[in-house]
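job 3f2a | input accepted
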Amino acid sequence: MVIKVLIDLNKLNNDNIVTLDSSFLIDLNVYSNKDISALENLYVQGSIKYNASDNLDFNLNITGIMYLKDTITLEIIEYPLNINITEEYSLNSPELQDYYKKEQNTLDIIGILWENIVLEVPMRFTKSKNVTLKGDGWSMGDNKIKDDIDPRLAKLTELLREGKE
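job 3f2a | predicted structure (165 res):
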């Protein structure tokens, strides 16, 4: 199943602006990202118009919900989307060549929407608070400094402390 959000460029030529105000779907089988588990309630609002240099000005807002894995617990959690797209594209640019169909004079912007959604995926996202991870001989998130000094480095530690005074 291929999902499309088609812009009729003939209409854009006649009206000089196309407004978008609708929900859309992204098939994660076609567009995949290992960090995104699901997308829901995707909605695009805004306009596309020609500017003075005959390029397309995108002024869009995407809202919805992205489901991501918690960085610490790996449980699936909601991440709200609110993305503003303010870009200028040329129909001859390599970025639009995959989406522009000259024979039909249409532009499928689903790929552009997807690229902007992927850019919003945070590198780390967690809802966990004050989590201390521990294992055999290691811990993370523990703010306590231990004075267990390796005897081989004791002299070095002593010299460093003397240098601070």
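job 3f2a | Residues 99 and 108 are 5 Å apart (CA to CA).
job 3f2a | closed
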